[in-house]
Amino acid sequence: MKRLILRLMVTIVAFSFGLLTYRVFIARQPDEPPKVQEPEVQVEVRYVHVPAPTPSPEPAPAFHDYDVEKFDPSGIYRIVGPTPKIFDDFSLLELWRPAGASIHSRGRNQKAIFALVTQRRVFIVTETGIEGDFGYRFDGQFLYKNFEGFAGKRKPVLRGILTKTKNGKAVAESLVSFWLEQHLGC
């Protein structure tokens, strides 16, 4: 038992000596670095009034997927024959490149908020405009690829479903054909 106590005492003395050596020589706190006075900086705050920019109307997304050299449907289109009663306010459909499309109704021009024109298909969605006014959607296809001889002839060149919308809901729909009143393409 004396031997165990002696070993324990030697271990405690060795541990204490190591701890003392660590604190005195190794873990000394470095002296504080001298404080350097920084020059005073004065900040002047100015308020400048910048008026908000007026938003410019963005052009409607119009996608034209055709070769203009071979096919250009730009022009003014009117309904063949008498206009259906449900579309009595409808005047004409207008396609032009590169800007897009529009539908004229009640003497106003309703620009397309989306237009897709390919060599075969036409899809147009117009803005509603004034409160209580109607919007239009047309999904149709061209009956011919060359419009040179059709301008002003009252012969159908475009056929599809014309839909009249109010507050985003369809209120009238009809299959209509359009003739080319004036060809604006090449």
Query: What integer value in Å does the Rg equal?
Result: 41 Å
Order of helices and strands: HEEEEEEEEE
Q: Could you say which structural class the secondary elements and strand pairing correspond to?
A: mainly beta
The helix content is 10-25%
**SS element count, helices:** 1
Task: Name the shape in a single word.
Answer: elongated
Strand content: 35-45%
Which whole number gives the mean pLDDT?
Answer: 80
Report a brief summary of the structure.
This protein has one helix and nine strands, in the order αβββββββββ.
Q: What features would you describe in this structure?
A:
With 186 residues, this protein is mainly beta. It has a domain at 62-183. The chain is built from one helix and nine strands, in the order αβββββββββ. The protein has one helix at residues 2-26; strands spanning 62-65, 75-79, 90-96, 100-105, 108-118, 121-126, 135-142, 156-166, 169-183. The chain has an eight-stranded antiparallel β-barrel with strand order 2-3-4-5-6-7-8-9. The radius of gyration is 41 Å and the shape is elongated. The model has no long low-confidence stretch (mean pLDDT 80).
